[in-house]
Amino acid sequence: MGFNCGIVGLPNVGKSTLFNALTATQAAQAANYPFCTIEPNVGRVAVPDPRLETLAQIEKSAKIVPTQLEFVDIAGLVKGASKGEGLGNQFLGNIREVDAIAQVLRCFEDSDVTHVSGSVDPVRDAEIIETELMLADLESLEKRLPNLQKKAKSGDKEAAAEAAVMERIVAALRDGKPARTVDVPAESVAIVRRMQLLTAKPQMFVLNVDEASAASGNAISAKAADYARMVGAPFVIISAAIEAEVAQLPSGEQREYLESLGLHDTGLSRVIAAGYTLLDLVTFFTVGPKEAHAWTVKRGSKAPQAAGAIHTDFEKGFIRAETIGYDDFVACGGEQGAKDAGKMRLEGKDYVVADGDIFHFRFNI
User: Fold this and answer.
1) In angstroms, what CA-CA distances link 88 with 95, 98, 138, 177?
2) Could you say which DSSP state residue 302 is in?
3) H helix runs in the chain, sequence order
4) What is the pTM of this model?
5) Which of 362, 355, 247, 352 has its CA nearest to residue 295?
6) Which of 358, 288, 362 lies closest to 325 in space, CA to CA?
7) b/e string for 199-214 if b means 16 or more Cβ within 10 A?
């Protein structure tokens, strides 16, 4: 099961530099001109989780396999993208394919790096992106709604339910509000998901500051942070330039370099963690002498779905899950100690996965 986060923003805000640092590659060409990224670049990154190393040490695992997130570097949008300006609909289409959006906002002044709007204003930039995504959603729904309403009038109950939800979202978009602000009942969530709306996707902001402001931000990023709080979105302050430098250093030198700049950890680890939280994911583990492995499922997933994240056959033939909570596993010194202490539970098909569960699945093919 893959989860991905699209990196979006106006041209020249640091998207490709951030992507390169995230993936520790030069897969995305970073250059000082718009539309440098023509095709979306995709990179998978490990999600930092100290619990995994602890589990591996306890069970003396020969190999550690962290869970991963996918980041997609999408070309810069410009004002008018919803009408085909710049590279327009091609990239709006790429955004539809991702699970969440990480919008990079430029929060630094640099006369050598051209801003497409001629000045640095992250709030204006965020509003441009949001407006273009809302216009694209509105155009899409207004084309589909009349046919749904026609079906609903003829007695199609499924069409009627979908039309009712769509009408509420269209009204919000016309009022300048993204689809994610529309409160829909639980039974209608699947309907919204099928609409593939850009503004229904969870969103976070990455505030890209100059190197001197990496530790605490600056006046520009403070405005962007206020905007993020206002719209209820998480944000992370980083210097993409510093992160790109750190990514090229040997692992042994990274900590020392960060500390020399007054930083305790990489901004990238915070971006990854924020993306993981934004996607509403939980981690479970499988641990043994061969490997300690972290796996990812959506919060609220049940045990068979977790088994399916490892292999589809595990879900099809699911019998039960031998389950130990992370704290119990550590406190008891591993699997055998947890068993001896009565901390291992047998969970069935209706068990909801808790973050940190250690599973051993029983299945029959």
Assistant:
1) 11, 17, 15, 21
2) B
3) 15-23, 50-59, 88-96, 122-153, 157-174, 189-194, 219-231, 240-248, 251-260, 267-278, 303-310, 312-316, 326-331, 335-340
4) 0.81
5) 355
6) 358
7) bbbbbbbbbbbbeebb
Write the single-letter amino acid at 123: V
Q: Are 13 and 30 in contact (CB under 8 A)?
A: no
pLDDT in 10s for each residue of the chain, 365 residues:
468 888 888 888 888 888 888 776 434 333 333 333 445 578 888 888 899 999 999 999 999 999 888 888 876 665 654 565 444 455 577 788 888 999 999 999 887 776 766 789 999 999 999 998 899 899 999 999 999 999 999 999 999 999 999 999 999 999 999 999 999 888 888 899 899 899 999 999 999 999 899 888 999 999 999 999 999 999 999 998 888 888 888 877 888 888 888 888 888 788 888 888 888 899 999 999 999 999 999 999 999 999 999 999 999 999 999 999 999 999 999 999 999 999 999 999 999 999 999 999 999 87
Find the length of the chain.
365
Give me 238's structure tokens. Answer: 């980083």
What is the number of alpha carbons within 13 Å of residue 364 lying toward its C-beta? 2
Do the strands 4-8 and 100-107 form a parallel or antiparallel pair, or are they unpaired?
parallel
Is 161:185 a contact under the CB 8 Å cutoff? no
Bridge partners of 64? 292
